[in-house]
Amino acid sequence: VSSGQTSVLVYTMPIFVMVMAHFLLKEKITVLKTIGLCAGIIGLLFILGPQIFHFQLDKQLIGQFLILLAAISWGCANIFSKIKFSNYDIIKMTSWQLLIGSVFLFVMSVFSEPITQAHWTASSITILLFNGVFSTAFTFVAWFWVLSKIEASKASMTLMIVPILGLFFGWLQLDEKLTSNIIIGALFIFLGIFFSAYKRKNRGLNVHLQDGK
C-alpha cells in the first residue's frame, strides 16, 4: 500500500470518531457535521480512486484492511481518552502510551523482521530523534491537549488534512502519482473540515426589547 493511500485510510478515523462520539460522548451529529462528514467521505473516495471497486484478495487488500482496523482502533482510543483521561496529566499519559507501545513494537519486530546489524550514522540518528521526539512525543501531547479542550468529533475532523499532506509528500519524496482525483478529493476534504468545525451563531442574539433595550 502506497504511503499516500495509507495516510488516507488511516485518517478515516474521524469518521468513526464522529459516530462513536454521538453514542458515547453525547456529541450530537448536527446538519453541518453531517455535511462535513459526507464531504470528507466523498473526498476520501475520490482520493482512493476507481481501484476501490476492483479489490482483489491479495497483499494490498490485506494491508488496506489492517490500516482501516488501525483507524478504528485509533478512534476507540480517542474516545476512551476523552472519557477517562480528560483531567489526567497529558505528559504522563503520553509517556506511558509511547513506552508501552514501544515495548510491544520491539517484541513484534523480533519475530517479524530480520535481525541485521545496525549501521548508526548522523543521518539515521537525526531521523530517529525527529520521528521519536517531534513527530511522535510532541505531537501526541499537543493532540491530547486539543482533545481535552474541544469536541472529539471536531478535533478528529480537522485531522483529515493529514492525508493531503501524506499524498503531497508521497509525490514529492517517493514519486507517487498525484492525479486529478487526488486534487478533487483534497478540495472535498477541506470542505468537510470547514463544515464540521463551523458553528452557527445563535439567531436569538439575546435581543432585549423591554425598557427600550
Secondary-structure content class: mainly alpha
Low-confidence stretches: 201-213
| Oligomeric assembly | single chain
Report mean pLDDT, rounded to a whole number: 77
Q: Into which percent range does the helicity of residues fall?
A: over 70%
What is the ordering of alpha helices and beta strands? HHHHHHHHH
**Count of alpha/pi helices:** 9
Instruction: From the alpha carbons, calculate the radius of gyration and give it in angstroms.
Output: 21 Å
Described by strand count, sense and barrel closure, the largest sheet is: none
What portion of residues belong to β-strands?
A: under 5%
What is the count of β-strands?
A: 0
Through-space gap between termini: 63 Å
Overall 3D geometry? globular
Main attributes?
213 residues, mainly alpha, globular, disordered C terminus
Task: Please provide a written account of the structure.
With 213 residues, the protein is mainly α. 72% of the residues lie in helices and 0% in strands. It has helices at residues 3-10, 13-24, 31-48, 59-84, 90-112, 122-149, 152-158, 162-174, 180-197. Helix 1 (3-10) runs antiparallel to helix 8 (162-174), helix 2 packs antiparallel against helix 7 (152-158) and helix 3 (31-48) packs antiparallel against helix 9. The N and C termini lie far apart (63 Å).
Secondary-structure blueprint of this entry?
Elements: H1 3-10, H2 13-24, H3 31-48, H4 59-84, H5 90-112, H6 122-149, H7 152-158, H8 162-174, H9 180-197
Helix pairs in contact: 1-8, 2-4, 2-7, 3-9, 5-6, 7-9
